[in-house]
Every structure is written in structure tokens, then in C-alpha cells.
Amino acid sequence: MFTSLRLDAKGAFDDTVSKQIVNGPMSEQVLTLAESLRDRARAALGTRNLVFVGLMGAGKSSIGRVVANQLGIPFVDTDIEIERVSRMTIPELFAAYGEEEFRALEMRVIKRLLKGGPRVVSTGGGAFINERTRRHVKRSGLSVWLKADLDVLWERVSKRDTRPLLKTENPKQTLERLMTARYPIYAEADLVVLSRDVNKDVMVNEVLVAIVEGRQESKTP
Known about the structure:
With about 220 residues, the protein is α/β, with parallel strands linked by helices. The protein has a single domain, classed as Rossmann fold, CATH 3.40.50.300. About 55% of the residues lie in helices and about 10% in strands. It is built from 9 helices and 5 strands. The protein has helices at about 15-25, 30-45, 60-70, 80-85, 90-115, 130-140, 150-155, 170-185, 200-215; strands at about 50-55, 75, 120, 140-145, 190-195. It has a 5-stranded parallel sheet. Helix 2 (about 30-45) crosses helix 9, helix 3 (about 60-70) crosses helix 9 and helix 4 (about 80-85) packs across helix 5 (about 90-115).
């Protein structure tokens, strides 16, 4: 099954195929394989939602949007939806109501969104940690953990100062503590794809392969 599109032991596509997918123009054979991969991934997903989980900075929204486009289904970012229905920003919600109330609102929004599938859903970093939210995701979705190491995450999140949980004296240390606490729970996701600094299209295709093969590709960054 699409042996040339399988991930090798290092978690990367075969160099020749990967370079053609990313840099183009793709040969007719590679284009056919890519189209077949999309079709198979869509069939494997069926009527389920595809739910991206992971820490802030893992790429859930950026990768999720492209995957949704590839699969031909809607994309929704739960943080954006929460801000829309509450008419408040995430930092404002945290400041006004605290994390516990925010998580309760987040759970209700995600539960509602999952009823309208299939769609690709990008969740906030703490969503999957909530046991009730996790149950809703497992009931009606296929979850994908975008797993990244500390340096990758820090490089991405340090460019913004809008992360409520990182407003501490040592935000990088806080991020590391979040990794320690949350990674064992993220590991309950159906699929695991390594998030790293490669072309976005490579990661998108790795997600599609994981959906088709239905495996948990757990890799250490």
C-alpha cells in the first residue's frame, strides 16, 4: 500500500517522493499517489471528526487547515470559536473567569462542534487534558497528537506574548512543566505525528499516511 509514501524509520517520506511533493512540479506518478493518499485518508476518516491535540505551538491550526483542505471538509479552530461565542479573547476569559471556568466553556464548545462532523478541529493546548472533553473527542473523533520537543515549541511560542499560561517569571520552564504534565495524556490520542521544523506539506502528508494506516507513530523528537 503506497510503499513509496510510507514513513521510514526516521519518520520522513522517501527523499525523492517528499521533495517532489514539496517542491514540485510533481511527476504524474507522484501526483497520482498523492491524490490516492488523500482519497484513502478521506475514506478512512469516514464520518468522524479529525481532532488535533497538543501543546501550544505544535502547529495544530496551521497543519489542520491544510489537512482539512486536502480532505475537502471544514476546518474549525476551537479558540476562535470560543472567542466568537463569548465575545472575549482567550486572555480576557482567563483573567475574568479563571482556567477552570474557561475549560468548562471550552468543553461545551468542543462538544457542540463535534456533533457537526466530519470536520477538522484544532483544539487548545489544555482541551484534551480535560477528562470530559477527552471522552467527547474519543466518542466522535479521530485524535492526532502533534508532538514537538521543547526547543521547537519555545521557538514558536516565544514570538507571541498572548499565552495566558506562559505569563510567568520563567515561561520556558513553565512550558517544560506543561510538557511533563500533559504529554502522558496526549499519548492517549489515536495517532501521533512528530511536529518539527520541516516544510508544512511534509507534515500534512504524514498526517494523511497516519490516518490511512491507522497507527500511532510514536516518535521521540
